[in-house]
């Protein structure tokens, strides 16, 4: 191997190492903080190794005697309910809409897709005031609906933001499936819905899995909407619960870190076991169509 190739290889590995450190150092510090006492965490100089780790922070956030444990259970349950509901709605409606756009002759369908995707281009905070006015003033007054501080409210809000992305990804996936397969199913006596369910859906399963996981992760990770549209344990999620652990004058950063570790377990486990499906589904749906 020539000296130039060795230099290039060395620089490549150094770049990879730098990216890995940049990625995993914050995660390691989060885990380390969750296993430290408040004194250890705030002492200087910072120590990247704990000789005497403790699980006290995890016990504190799950302690039923001071109400924290009950709020933790409410938040974790609400997060799962909202995340799974958003996933089902977005995958079901998004796949049907994407299939219609990819296969049917709908006038102006490309414009519809672009407008739908444009909802992802707007920052969430830009739509907070309109949504707030609609929920607080318009819906209760004219329709008698009070959705504020409910899980249904967050499910509708998250679905409206995520649905456009699901349609965009699945449109590319459905467009890559040969029409001849559906036509063969129609010849065998399948209705359009049966051809979609028995032929198209199995072939598009990697894309459906990817969009389902993406929808779930985007729903459970949101903080802004959960902060502004919830007030009680009835609807708040794990990001909001972590926010409430910080007091006005005393911040228990070690307990915040412990709650962060627990909240990150579902996304991390999903990424570890289904990471390849996410990547293959997103890349296939993003470059075709």
Give your account of this protein's structure.
The chain has 13 helices and no strands. By secondary structure, the protein is an all-alpha fold. Helix 4 packs antiparallel against helix 10 (205-221), helix 4 runs antiparallel to helix 12 (238-244) and helix 5 (109-118) packs across helix 7 (151-175). The chain has a single domain (65-285), classed as MetI-like fold (Orthogonal Bundle), CATH 1.10.3720. 28% of the residues are buried. The protein is globular and about 70 Å long.
Map the helices and strands:
Elements: H1 3-34, H2 38-42, H3 56-61, H4 68-103, H5 109-118, H6 128-143, H7 151-175, H8 179-187, H9 192-203, H10 205-221, H11 224-228, H12 238-244, H13 253-287
Primary descriptors:
289 residues; mainly alpha; MetI-like fold
Short description:
This protein has 289 residues and is mostly helical.
Q: Major β-sheet, in short?
A: none
- The CATH H-level superfamily is MetI-like
Strand content: under 5%
Report, as a whole number of angstroms, the end-to-end distance: 43 Å
Helix content: over 70%
CATH architecture: Orthogonal Bundle
